[in-house]
Amino acid sequence: MHKVLIFVLLLMSTVSFGQIEIGGTVQDQNQVPIPYANVVIQKDSLQILNFMYTDEAGVFQLEVPEKGVFQLFVSCLGYKAETIQIDLQAEEQQQVFEIVLPKESFVLHEVIVQADIPIKEKKDTIVIDADMFANGNEEVVEDLLKKIPGVTVNSDGTIKVGNKEIEKLMVEGDDFFEKGYKLLSKNMPAYAVDKVELLQNYSNNRLLKDVERSDKVALNLKLKEEARHIWFGNVDGSYGFAEQHWYHLRANLMNFGTKNKFFFFTNLNNVAYDATGDINHLIRPIRYDEPASIGDDQQVRNLLNLQAPLVDLQRDRTHFNNAELLSLNAIFRPSKKMKAKVLGFYNGDEIDFFRNATEVVSVNGTQFTNTEDYQLRTNNRIGFGELDIEYDISKTQMLEATTKYNHADENTASNLLFNGASTVEALRSNNRLFDQKISYSHRFNNKKVLLLTGRFIDEQTPQQYAINQFFYQDLFPAFSNANNVVQQSKNKMQFAGLETHLLDRHSKNHLLEMVFGNAYRKDILETQLGLKEDDIILENLDEYKNQTTYQSNNLYFKSKYVYELKKFSLIGKLNFHQLFNQLTHNFESENQSPFFVNPSVGLDWEINDKHEITTSYSYNTSNAGILDVYNDFVLTGFRAFSRGLGTFNQLDASTFTLNYELGDWGDRFFATTSIVYSQNHDFFSTNTRINQNHTQSEKIIIDDRQSLSITSKWDYYVKQISANLKLDLGFSQSEFKNIVNNSNLRTVNSSSYTYGLELRSGFTGAFNYHIGTKWTTTEIQTSIRNSFTNNNSFLNLSFLFQNNLNIQVRAERYFFDNLETDNTYYFLDLDARYTIKENKLTLALSGKNLLNTKRFRNFAASDIGTSVTEFRLLPRFVLLKMEYRL
Q1: Selection from 848, 816, 808 nearest residue 317 by Cα
Q2: Is the dihedral of CA 526, 531, 533, 538 positive or negative?
Q3: Contact 768/135 with Cβ under 8 angstroms?
Q4: Where are the alpha helices (DSSP H) in 98-253?
Q5: Helices (H), 257-413
Q6: What b/e sequence results for 72-110 when a residue is b if at least 16 CB atoms lie within 10 Å of its CB, and e otherwise?
Q7: Which of 20, 203, 568, 788 has the most crowded CB, counting CB atoms within 10 A?
Q8: How far is residue 319's CA from residue 380's CA, in Å, rounded to a whole number?
Q9: Three-state secondary structure along 501-551?
């Protein structure tokens, strides 16, 4: 860790001392500053070393990476351009110039201006020329965005600018998918994109622009001229032979006109390609603390899930799938005042997952070892429809209505060999969601906006679970002849909310926000566990039966004031909540009416254009949910039972945050460091009884828990080698308390350290690379101490030959130091594309897992023991692919 830091600091110091800075002012003959003049450092008439525009005071400052004789070219429309020859010596670290441009009148006849400036800035919009960063091997928009400096696309498809996730990804100013933008970025072809617009200080509601205090960012795709107002698309298909038949078929058809826009696409594959991202981001987008976002955080959560666990690998290594996706989307403008958006998609997937695990438990005198040979198959079917209506009553009034309906079926079955006993699980889950929201916005004047929002949500998720073994003889000794178990559950939720939100931006830029609203939620949870002998139910047990209704009405008033004082912003919040709770167990009810205040205070300090500090402190009281208050046991896994608290409760927590930002996302050097410290004055913990065949956990409330998280990300563009250097550091520490097997209250301390380094080239030639490594050290300590360190390294190489052949090679290495054998794994992928006819026909060859690594093991530690898990991986396969553009 120390060596890495020293290396980075030395590298940055070396680069810094090699720079020569020149600066100065640009004025006219009357000594009036000339803003936005173009200042260029040239080695000759063809090679530009650096450039910028003067600020509003006519000031400029540039770095020159080498010594020598150069030309300083200064120009501005309406003035005569000046060229100055300058001689920069190594011992001169800084030179200052005062440049005078005489006014020059001219007659403009016909002018054609051609400029290859990759990034332009105008107010809150940054325009990025896509062709300047593309090299021809981009298939979808996601591939293109990965290559733009300052834009990061995570492995799950999440798009960030700097350290902020984007709000939406639009096409020609219209948004199809909101937070579900991965449907667009993973499916829309990249070749149609001309410009990428980065919208800063973005507002989801146009009437809130320059009124609300927003640091959100969004992206807008501008299309090439030949892709506008016409139908276009592409079809590509891949097929390959190996141990099984592999295929990937993708088709797009779209038309982005001024009035109407259409985007139709389909994706069929069994090569582990994720064409949707997290569908929940579209079905249930969550925007915290934003106007008109009432109800965004309301949804039903299941007690029991059979899902593949997260693996320290790329998802396409372990994801055996058979996916079908069809999505039909359109935006209509029947009049100047009205816009309608219609979305619909069907997604089906059959997912297989395989693992073997050995778990060693050693806690409070209990010791045993469990082995599992696990095969899971999940069959998902999701149908979703959305209708959005936006009506401009006038330039200052707008009405929005959103209607959503979701229907999802999930059938899951597992074959499990548990300690040698053959076990079959079956789970059927359904989800029905209806969501209606209506919002009215009125901008009274340039600085005051009123929003009225109403929302209704109805959601239910019934489940049927069965297991063909009976592992609970010691829990139910009277039923020794039982040999299988079933559980029925129903979880229903209804939400209704009304909210009035006023934003008032004062003349001195102070901001007052007031919110008055009422949110009502009703949950019904019904569960029944049945012990069976073959097909005969022996007993429905009262202690394993829930019939709970939980109603909570939240009458609230929220206030926020932002006081602007030059470079300081003071932010104060006071939220008042009056709750009316009713909890019913088996037809017996109790009521509660708690009142609480949630205060918050913050400070933003913009030291200068390059340095900014934000900090905040908040005290928050939260109300319990249905999964916290049910009162009897529920089967949550084939060998796990859990029970809620059975009564009302509210939990208190304090949180302190500090964030320091150096530079901006588009600067040569950009760094951000965040510190989050939280203290739970009381929190939910568990009292757990563990034995080899089953566990029983009951929720309990414990006082005092603390956690600390520190992250730091550095991003530096090294001009001498045309590469971007990234350093990622992280530390987290948390404390948890619980009871296990009638022990005294135990304190569990866990800590984690991460440190990673990446270097990505930005050459304009035939070769580029991306190399990186990341180390993670985890430590868990109770009466015993478990720690382990894992490493992931990668190398991506890109070759472009004669503009029609490009090859990409991806290599990965994984290392787990706590595994005595088989602790290092290597992967190699290859993609080659050959353009037969430009913009028409392309052939490609794709190879995955070429080293044919079939198994992957990792090590994990918890507060009760350790485990070693082995996963089956997708085998080596090679696909032959053809892409045809319509």
Answers
A1: 848
A2: negative
A3: yes
A4: 141-145, 182-185
A5: 280-283
A6: bbbebeebeebeeeeebeeeeeebeeebbbeeeeeeeee
A7: 20
A8: 14
A9: EEEEECCCCCEEEEEEEEEEEEEEEEEEEEEEECCEEEEEEEEEEEEEEEE
Among residues 264, 207, 204, 259, which one has the least CA distance to residue 234?
264
Cα atoms in the 13 Å half-sphere on the side-chain side of 273: 21
The tens digit of pLDDT for each residue in 153-191 reads: 887 888 988 778 898 999 998 999 888 888 888 888 888
584-637 per-position pLDDT tens digit: 998 889 999 999 999 999 999 988 878 899 999 999 999 999 999 999 999 998
Query: Residue 266's beta-bridge partner residues?
Result: 251, 326
Interatomic CA distance for residues 847 and 240, integer angstroms: 9
Beta carbons of 738 and 686 less than 8 angstroms apart: yes
d(C-alpha 853, C-alpha 260), whole Å: 49
- Quick count: other Cβ atoms within 10 Å of Cβ 458? 14
DSSP code, position 78: T
What's the gap between Cα 166 and its chain centre? 9
Can you read off the two tokens belonging to residue 126? 């940054």
- The closest of 638, 546, 542 to 584, measured between CA atoms, is 546
**Coarse DSSP helix, strand, coil percentages of the chain, rounded to the nearest 5 percent:** 5, 65, 30
Q: Dihedrals φ, ψ of 306, to 5°?
A: -110, 100
110, two tokens: 């016909």
Report yes or no: 672 and 163 within 8 Å, Cβ to Cβ.
yes
Q: How far apart are CA 735 and CA 694, in angstroms?
A: 26
Do 133 and 143 meet the contact criterion of CB atoms below 8 Å apart?
no
CA distance 871 to 874: 10
User: How high is the pLDDT of residue 9?
Assistant: 37
Tokens of 349: 């997937």
Question: What does the angle CA 247 – CA 249 – CA 255 come to, to the nearest 5 degrees?
Answer: 170
Digit-coded pLDDT (tens) for 421-469: 899 999 999 999 999 999 999 998 888 999 999 999 999 999 999 999 8
| Mean pLDDT across 120-139 | 80
Which residue from 331, 308, 304 is spatially nearest to 320, judged by alpha carbons?
Answer: 308
Residue type, 874: L
Q: What percent of the chain has pLDDT over 70?
A: 94
Strands 640-643 and 695-718 turn out to be parallel
- Are 70 and 86 in contact by the 8 Å Cβ rule? The answer is yes
DSSP letter at 250 equals E
Q: pLDDT digits over 388-418, tens only? A: 999 999 999 999 999 999 999 999 999 999 9
Q: Look up the pTM and report it.
A: 0.83
Strands (E), 139-244: 151-153, 159-161, 164-165, 169-171, 174-175, 193-199, 218-223, 232-241
Q: Which two tokens stand for residue 704?
A: 């005092």
Three-state SS at 758:
strand
Q: Cα–Cα distance between 216 and 288 in angstroms, integer? A: 12
Token pair, residue 333, equals 């403008």
In single-letter form, the type of residue at position 427 comes to L
